[in-house]
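Lecture 7 notes: from sequence to structure.
We start with the chain below.
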Amino acid sequence: MSTYAPPTPTLSGDKLTVSYLLNNPLLVQRLLRTLVERRLIGGRILTGRVDMTGTGAAIYETSEPIDVDRDAEIIDQLADYPLVTDQGATTNLAASLKRGFKALVSDEDVSRNRLDVVNRKLIKMTNRIVTQFDALVLSAVGSAVSQTQAAAAAWNTSNADQFLDLLLSGAKIETLDEGYEANTVVAKPEKWARLVATIAKMFAAAIDPSTLRTGTIFEIAGLTLLKSPRMPSGTDVIVLDNTQLGSIGWEDLGGNYDGDPSDPLGVESFVKHDDDNDAWKIQMRKVGVPMVQEPGAAVKVTGV
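Predicted structure tokens for the same chain:
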């Protein structure tokens, strides 16, 4: 069975042919990394990392108190010290899951088209695998977190005070005195827009003009503002401590894949020529699982 090899890589001005990209997996991986960085926020919410390599599973604990059950007492001379007890954590088991797919780029596409053909395909594949894993992380957070803080008023009304709602929500998890410190806000795009617009008006004189030009406010009052259209159903805004909330477990399965499986922003990719189908095979996978270890480190803002 004859096959048609792709043409020799050529340059036309500042453009590379598709075949050059497909023959260079590192270029493919760099492109994927750039695309993922723009869209994935799960790794910013669950910042812990757990290596599951060799087992594919991890045992983790949730909601363990940070102190013992009673205060220290004044001890008289020669008196015994009181015995204290402490509460344990709930033990859970998480198993890593491999998610992936592949696509074929025909030799005809390689020989007749330029970079935009495979670029569009990579964008579509990356969008799908990234949004799926991101939704999985957000769904795990939404299911685990039960604390709520009611907004003073709906954020689309004149009585709304979005900034105070965030501060009060952060105060709720800090009042638990479990070592949590609110530092991150995740909101649906429409809620994020109303929040940012309000903050921009309130602190216009203090905000760097370049921030307003780019339309991005990274931090205000110690809170990093993130947005995602993949918030779980019924949840519009979450305030959390991303250093305590949880982790993402990962597993290195080996193989000839490019990319770092431990990187929460990473997607592993594999590119090779399929001689049987006269095509280039682009294969992607993401191996991991979210683990919410401290659900008390987050609170849902309701009524927004």
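Points to note: The two ends are 63 Å apart (CA to CA). Confidence is low (pLDDT under 50) at residues 1-9.
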